[in-house]
């Protein structure tokens, strides 16, 4: 009973913990969103920053922060400018009346000069730093004259320093204030933008100078907290940079803080280096830096004070929610959060692109269905309705004005209708003139028999021409429907490829790394994209190999043993210098490979042949061999056959199915010209993984497969390319094996031998007599044998392509690595 209760209680407690965690996350999310709205929308952030910047003084008397902040807010957030100005004056009043007076004078002077400059310069953004520079200089000089009877060189120099710093700070605030106040941040921040934000934060912390409790300085605590935060998020480089910038500005506010720059920079460096230990590691880095720099700078006198300040900063850092650090990390390049954010953005773009491609695919599919539906409806039209329409047009031209109209079509309707229908069918079959019996009976029944017979014969000619045209249009619609459907399938496949992500193979990557490194091969990086059987895709980075071929001779054979599959080097980019890295791509070896040999000659030994051929790697484990024979000889025939081959190559490589590709080419060729010039096409597509093959023979001669002593003839009956009437494609399938010879030829070879009655038997006998298995030698021997039968004359364009199918055996055998295979 206790065990049952324990089993029941465990999931309930887990569920309770999960619900509590969700409630806390939801509460924190609502609180942070409301706080963000209150700070940004209500303008509280400008009040806080303005108040502290109003207190910020450097070099004991210089006030370079107040007016640049007010000018930047006035330009970008005009509705918050009043709050910013009042908070600056309020912050200055906590220091002294003179400081608040100078800030007030500078704001008033700035508003006046800005209004005057607006009449001359329209671009207020570009002129703003110069307006602030002039305003600060004038304000400082006027205030000095009011306090003193005469000005010294020192007064002019300090006025120049203050106005120059104000000029620079204006540029910095224009960059940093939008980054802090914007509700939606950019996806990533540049290093310059991060430094601008650091300068703004350091300037704000300058306003904390003088705020202390029992010798614990507020600026020390918050500056170390900021350094801890950025060292933990961005690493040693960001942490040390933030430490240098913050320490430099704080040391300008108080010369006694000069050693503080070293403390912050060193602590940021150590904290960033130890951030692998999470927040505790970063905090330990700050403690070590604080102790070392304090002992070196001021001895052990203030060591406890420094440690207390660091401990308070660490406490603030430890209680900082992970949501805040994660949110900041998303905008700093180089962090995992930023990389995930970028991947999420790329994934979103990919999904949008895939969705658009899906939409286009659906559009093409809908268009295809529309054409196909229309075609089906046309195919099922009522024949009786067509007959009635035909006879109505006949009676309109012959019987409408006849005096016997009432007798024929009212009293004897059925008999008249049967006569007309019989004559129509007999005329269609060209048997009516010989049917004397029907002619006599119809002559007795109709007073205008000859006129009706002539009208029916004439109307039938129009009707047959219309039916032929209608059939051609229907065939064209059907072809367009198939083409649109093919395009839809291609776009659907493209969408699937876009959506497919690289799978996570971390375990397999570690296994491969360990196996290769234990063997003594140094590997920098392994990326596995696919481990599917027959579709392995692995990329590696290795140190400079100096062209010794380690990848092909050692690594690929070891991968073959690990994956239990033949793996070869697909591509390799070697480093150009000894300290670089070589990038190698490995993939599955195909089970079969094809070697081709070609022999061709033009009619009469000319230079231009009407035959064209091509060997096409379709890129999906398939290989195509094609021969096209243009009608006739010479340049025009060469143009037709070459265009057919080029269109075929482009369409097949796009991924469209073979039958649709053939019909598409046929429609293009038939619509391109009205001349009676056509092309034949002999196409073989071989799957290099299993040897299955498809043969599409469009008006071409038979092909032959030589398998040992056996000769297999492959043929199909299809019209040449360019004839659209009732065009269809017969596909012949054949399983090819290792050692087979596939012999394809044009009609100049097949029908070339002289004094031969049966070309099939002659070609089979000659192929069987050939002893060599080299494809080029076979092609040359067949060509030579045909030319010899013609006494050395070439009376037609001749082309023969021989393909040898062999097992694809890698050059290097697999190397045993480990008994434990990767699954």
Automatic annotation (TrEMBL):
<feature type="transmembrane region" description="Helical">
    <location>
        <begin position="225"/>
        <end position="250"/>
    </location>
</feature>
<dbReference type="InterPro" id="IPR045768">
    <property type="entry name" value="SpoIIE_N"/>
</dbReference>
<feature type="transmembrane region" description="Helical">
    <location>
        <begin position="163"/>
        <end position="182"/>
    </location>
</feature>
<dbReference type="InterPro" id="IPR014221">
    <property type="entry name" value="SpoII_E"/>
</dbReference>
<dbReference type="Pfam" id="PF07228">
    <property type="entry name" value="SpoIIE"/>
</dbReference>
<feature type="domain" description="PPM-type phosphatase">
    <location>
        <begin position="595"/>
        <end position="805"/>
    </location>
</feature>
<feature type="transmembrane region" description="Helical">
    <location>
        <begin position="257"/>
        <end position="274"/>
    </location>
</feature>
<dbReference type="Pfam" id="PF19732">
    <property type="entry name" value="SpoIIE_N"/>
</dbReference>
<keyword id="KW-0378">Hydrolase</keyword>
<keyword id="KW-1133">Transmembrane helix</keyword>
<feature type="transmembrane region" description="Helical">
    <location>
        <begin position="82"/>
        <end position="113"/>
    </location>
</feature>
<keyword id="KW-0472">Membrane</keyword>
<dbReference type="GO" id="GO:0004722">
    <property type="term" value="F:protein serine/threonine phosphatase activity"/>
</dbReference>
<dbReference type="InterPro" id="IPR052016">
    <property type="entry name" value="Bact_Sigma-Reg"/>
</dbReference>
<feature type="transmembrane region" description="Helical">
    <location>
        <begin position="44"/>
        <end position="70"/>
    </location>
</feature>
<keyword id="KW-0812">Transmembrane</keyword>
<dbReference type="InterPro" id="IPR036457">
    <property type="entry name" value="PPM-type-like_dom_sf"/>
</dbReference>
<feature type="transmembrane region" description="Helical">
    <location>
        <begin position="125"/>
        <end position="143"/>
    </location>
</feature>
<feature type="transmembrane region" description="Helical">
    <location>
        <begin position="194"/>
        <end position="213"/>
    </location>
</feature>
<protein>
    <submittedName>
        <fullName>Stage II sporulation protein E</fullName>
        <ecNumber>3.1.3.16</ecNumber>
    </submittedName>
</protein>
<dbReference type="InterPro" id="IPR001932">
    <property type="entry name" value="PPM-type_phosphatase-like_dom"/>
</dbReference>
């Amino acid at each position: 009973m206790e065990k049952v209760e324990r089993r029941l209680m465990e999931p309930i407690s887990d569920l309770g913990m999960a619900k509590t965690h969700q409630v806390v996350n939801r509460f924190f999310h609502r609180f942070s969103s409301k706080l963000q709205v209150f700070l940004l929308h209500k303008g509280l952030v400008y009040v806080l920053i303005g108040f502290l910047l109003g207190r910020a003084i450097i070099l004991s008397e210089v006030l370079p922060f107040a007016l640049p902040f007010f000018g930047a807010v006035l330009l970008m957030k005009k509705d918050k400018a009043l709050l910013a100005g009042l908070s600056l004056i309020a912050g200055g009043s906590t220091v002294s009346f003179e400081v608040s007076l100078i800030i007030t004078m500078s704001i008033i002077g700035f508003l006046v000069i800005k209004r005057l400059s607006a009449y001359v310069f329209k671009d207020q953004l570009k002129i703003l730093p110069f307006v602030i520079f002039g305003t600060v200089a004038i304000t400082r000089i006027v205030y000095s004259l009011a306090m003193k009877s005469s000005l010294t060189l020192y007064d002019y120099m300090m006025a120049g320093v203050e106005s120059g710093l104000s000029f620079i700070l204006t540029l910095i605030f224009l960059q940093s204030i939008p980054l802090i106040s914007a509700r939606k941040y950019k996806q990533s921040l540049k290093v310059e933008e991060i430094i601008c934000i650091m300068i703004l934060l350091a300037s704000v912390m300058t306003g904390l100078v003088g705020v202390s409790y029992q010798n614990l300085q507020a600026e020390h605590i918050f500056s170390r907290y900021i350094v801890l935060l950025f060292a933990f998020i961005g690493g040693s480089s960001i942490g040390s940079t933030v430490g240098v910038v913050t320490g430099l500005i704080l040391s300008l506010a108080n010369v006694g803080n000069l050693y503080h720059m070293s403390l912050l920079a060193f602590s940021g460096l150590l904290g960033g280096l130890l951030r692998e230990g999470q927040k505790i590691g970063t905090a330990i880095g700050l403690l070590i830096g604080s102790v070392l720099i304090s002992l070196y700078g001021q001895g052990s006198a203030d060591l406890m004070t420094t440690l207390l300040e660091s401990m308070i900063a660490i406490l603030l850092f430890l209680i900082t929610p992970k949501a805040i650090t994660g949110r900041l990390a998303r905008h700093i390049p180089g962090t995992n959060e930023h990389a995930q954010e970028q991947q999420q953005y790329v994934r979103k773009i990919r999904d949008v692109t895939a969705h658009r491609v899906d939409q286009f695919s659906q559009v093409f599919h809908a268009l295809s269905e529309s054409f196909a539906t229309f075609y089906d409806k046309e195919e099922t039209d009522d024949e009786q309705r067509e007959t009635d329409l035909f006879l109505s047009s006949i009676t309109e031209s012959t019987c409408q004005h006849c005096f016997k109209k009432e007798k024929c079509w009212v009293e004897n309707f059925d008999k008249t209708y049967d006569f007309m229908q019989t004559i129509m069918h007999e005329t269609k079959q060209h048997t009516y003139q010989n049917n004397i019996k029907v002619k006599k009976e119809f002559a007795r029944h109709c007073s205008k028999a000859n006129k009706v017979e002539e009208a029916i014969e004439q109307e039938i000619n129009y009707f047959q021409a219309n039916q032929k045209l209608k059939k051609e249009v229907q065939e064209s619609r059907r072809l367009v429907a198939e083409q649109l459907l093919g395009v839809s399938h291609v776009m659907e496949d493209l969408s699937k490829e876009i959506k497919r992500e690289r799978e996570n193979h971390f375990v397999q990557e570690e296994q491969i790394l360990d196996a290769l490194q234990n063997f003594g091969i140094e590997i920098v990086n392994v990326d596995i994209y696919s481990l599917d059987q027959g579709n392995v895709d692995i990329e590696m980075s290795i140190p400079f190999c100096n062209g010794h071929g380690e990848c092909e001779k050692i690594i690929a054979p070891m991968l073959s043993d690990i994956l239990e599959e033949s793996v070869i080097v697909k591509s390799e980019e070697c480093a150009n210098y000894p300290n670089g890295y070589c990038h190698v791509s490995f993939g599955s070896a195909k089970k079969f490979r094809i070697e081709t040999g070609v022999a061709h000659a033009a009619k009469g030994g000319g230079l231009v042949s009407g035959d064209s051929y091509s060997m096409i790697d379709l890129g999906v484990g398939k290989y195509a061999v094609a021969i096209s024979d243009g009608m006739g000889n010479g340049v025009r025939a060469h143009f037709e056959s070459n265009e057919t081959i080029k269109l075929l190559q482009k369409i097949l490589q796009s991924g469209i199915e073979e039958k649709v590709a053939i019909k598409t080419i046929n429609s293009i060729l038939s619509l391109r010209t009205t001349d009676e010039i056509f092309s034949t096409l002999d196409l073989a597509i071989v799957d290099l993984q299993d040897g299955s093959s498809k043969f599409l023979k469009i008006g071409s001669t038979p092909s032959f497969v030589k398998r040992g002593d056996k000769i297999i003839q492959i043929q199909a009956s299809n019209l040449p390319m360019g004839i659209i009437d009732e065009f269809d494609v017969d596909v012949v399938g054949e399983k090819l094996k290792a050692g087979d010879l596939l012999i394809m030829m044009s009609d100049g070879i097949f029908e070339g031998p002289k004094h031969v009655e049966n070309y099939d038997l002659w070609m089979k006998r000659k192929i069987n007599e050939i002893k060599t298995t080299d494809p080029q030698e076979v092609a040359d021997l067949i060509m030579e044998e045909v030319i010899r039968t013609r006494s050395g004359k070439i009376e037609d364009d001749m082309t023969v392509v021989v393909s040898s199918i062999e097992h694809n055996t890698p050059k290097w055998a697999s190397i045993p690595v480990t008994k434990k295979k990767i699954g």
